[in-house]
Predict the 3D structure of the following.
Amino acid sequence: MTAEPSPLPPLIVEEALNQAVNGNPIGGGLLLVPLIEESRFECFALCVMLATAALTGTKPKPANGMFVLEVEDTWTGQPGRAEDLPPELAFAAEFATAWGNEDRTAAQALFDAVADEAHTEAGMERLIDGVLALYGMAIATTRALIQEQRNNPNHRED
């Protein structure tokens, strides 16, 4: 008999995002720490939930059916490379892109590359930083969706 997944992690992620958009991103992020530390499975599931939240409301996939990671140098405005991103941002962007492209194998490989070193203090720090970068992406998307909804003239506040 296999254990049923707990209904709590999605509620925790929702609360973390609620806290973040209401001005407490650090408090929200702290809610995620037990999910990161719980188990490798829970941490991967957390990454999936955050990537899904980060991709919510994105444009439909292009004609070729693939999301593409576009990186821009904020100083020059010129196209950049994913390799130039800090490691935690590269992980978050590549994981979200893989998940958005429904490439579970690539998403799992990206996660495993980071999680395999989580038994060391530096490795655990890299894992936490990567998850928090995904959290930051999810926060940005959630804020944008809320703002879009508020800007909708047909939207009513109840």
User: Anything to note?
Assistant: The mean pLDDT is 85. The CA atoms of residues 148 and 155 lie 10 Å apart.
